[in-house]
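During the reporting period the student researcher (J.K.) took over the structure-prediction task from the postdoctoral fellow and processed the backlog of single-chain submissions. One of the processed entries is reproduced below for the supervisory committee.
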Amino acid sequence: MHSPRICEGNLCHARCGVSALANSRDKFNLPRGLTPPGNQPRGTTENHASILHTGNATGVSVTGLVLIGIGGIVGAGYFLGVGMAVSEAGPSILLGFVLGALLMSQVVGAITSLSVNHPVEGSFRTYAQEMLGPFIGYMQGWLYWLSSVLTIGSEAIAMAVFARMWLPGMPIWSLSLLFIVLVLLLNAFGVNVFAKLESALAGVKLVALIAFIVIAIFLLMQPNAFHLSLTHLLSRGFFPHGVLGLFQSMLIVVFAYAGIGVVATAITQLNHAEDAGRASGLIVFGLAILYILSLLALLLLLPWWKISTQTGPFTLALNIHHLFGIANLMNGVVLVAAFTVMGGALFSAVLILSSMANARQAPYFMKKTPGRFGGFPALLVSVAGVVLSILISFKLPASVYNDLISASSFFTFFNWVIILLSWMRYKRIHRDDVHYQSAFLRFGGVTLFATIVVIVALAGFALTNADQRMGAIAAALLFLLVAVFYPWIRKRSHPHMERS
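J.K. obtained the following structure tokens:
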């Protein structure tokens, strides 16, 4: 995954790096090469979840950041969740990923611009609190944690789906809980082991997707193969479920892009600040091209109506072409990659919960304390939340994986809008101090406002899907539950919130 630091915002919940944890520091250090403008932000109490450095004095190169970024975003949300998106949109899902990339570019532009102009502890949550008020900052923190819990649950279920290829007799719920226990043990006792594996496994995922594309090209070069595949691809129309089907699939597409906060977590670690725009651009275009090409290869190798979330679509495509050994290898790569994604998400959930406890915005017994097991109470509470989300999900009438992704993606919609608004507000307040603006934002507030409108519209279209409506209801109830406690938390933690 990625290593530089943990961000606080739903954007990086599923991809926050594990290796960075081993190098975390309680005191904020401004990265070399990036100097904030004018007034420095006041310190926060969230030192435990602020910025996690690689420990390298030389920082990160552009190439390193691109590998960290793309490798840290791709996870089970794409390897398995794409099957659900294809079932909704058919071949038009390709347009969905193009639209998702355009939305992502605006959010990445806002993230990069904020991070370079105003590097602070607490990242997204601090930006929201400073620019939009303490209530939004409070909601950002808690929705981040809740979204982490839901994402970990969905990753655990995805792992169970992949593992059933080898253990067909095991129920999904029992495998999911088994993986949760393993991640809990690794988080508690094996941080260094996780740290060494996670960066390498990020590269493994990228190699696996590139290899899949190369294999697809080889298979499609066989006599009549491409013509037959193209016929299957378009036999039921490019929009088999209409344009509405494409819009309804966007919730899953957003989930696949939800880890873009990794850009902000790493951008301030660059050797040279002027490379920020080039690095973020390469991440956006690289990720979009990788997603679209691998998805096109999948649709050409496997009739889209045969894709489901009951098995990994990429593995299924390889099996249909009798590449059983490669299919098993792909299954193993995805399984291990999803495992590290889940581990990173759990680490970040523990960090945000501990830091909020230190700020008196969460029960104080979960605060970070010195020692090897300083975050253990927050770890246990986070794991309990994940287990509860999995068990409850199996009682819902709709697809388990669908519900988890839907609820988490609605939180992503919320956080993307908050990040865009935070940058718009920051630029308006510090008009004369803005020394860097991402090239993605060259049209100023027009594209930012248009992106917000599209995000809100897509959230509305998602409500027309009965399964996704369950996720929306769950997200709304959790949102209200968090909001109801704000007056009490505000009164209880007023001095802390003012300092942060």
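The committee noted the following: The chain has 20 helices and no strands.
J.K. will present the remaining backlog at the next meeting.
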